[in-house]
Amino acid sequence: MSLGRLTRPLTMTMAMVALSLMATSRPLVAADGSALGSRMVVVIVTYTFPAPVSLGDVRRAAARGAQRYVNLPGLMTKNYWLSEDGTRAGGVYVWESRARAEAFYTPQWKQFFTEQYGVPPEILYLHSPVMVDNNAGRIFVDPE
């Protein structure tokens, strides 16, 4: 359906929602309320396995370890993932800053998970200037 066919009330509702989202958009702040000095990052951690693993395997491993990420300072979200062919798995993390992320991925962390999964993790850091959080109903924007 084209935008021209939308009724006026629906168009007004959409405009009000957009204005509301813009009003709730704010610079990223830490859990303690202080402004962050660095930029929000997405980190993709990948384990590449010699043979496919199942979704059930990943679900069980995630269920065992997920609690350690609850209320972890600097971590905004974490998603576990599995490739469709089952040969790669890992996590997608959103951190308040690269410093917080780097402080988490210590040599000890890497060693622990290398031993647990039998393969070393690959860690990719990505800039994330804006994040839409539909659960919180907010948009997070890194400071300029």
How would you describe the overall organization of this protein?
The protein is of the alpha+beta class. The protein has a single domain, classed as 2-Layer Sandwich (Alpha-Beta Plaits), CATH 3.30.70. It has a four-stranded antiparallel β-sheet with strand order 3-4-2-5. The protein has a three-stranded mixed β-sheet with strand order 1-7-6, covered by helices on one side. It is globular. The N terminus is likely disordered.
Give a topology summary.
Elements: H1 8-24, E1 26-27, E2 41-48, H2 55-65, E3 75-82, E4 88-95, H3 98-104, H4 107-117, E5 122-127, E6 130-133, E7 138-141
Short structural description:
Helix content is 32%, strand content 28%.
Structural class: alpha+beta
Percent helix range: 25-40%
Residue stretches low in confidence (pLDDT < 50, at least 5 long) are 1-37
Main sheet specs: 4 strands, antiparallel
Q: How many runs of DSSP E, i.e. beta strands?
A: 7
Backbone CA Rg = 19 Å
Strand content: 25-35%
Q: Under the CATH scheme, which architecture would be assigned?
A: 2-Layer Sandwich
Name the helix and strand elements from N-terminus to C-terminus, one letter apiece. Answer: HEEHEEHHEEE
Short descriptors:
alpha+beta; Alpha-Beta Plaits; 4-stranded antiparallel beta sheet; 3-stranded mixed beta sheet; 28% strand; globular; disordered N terminus
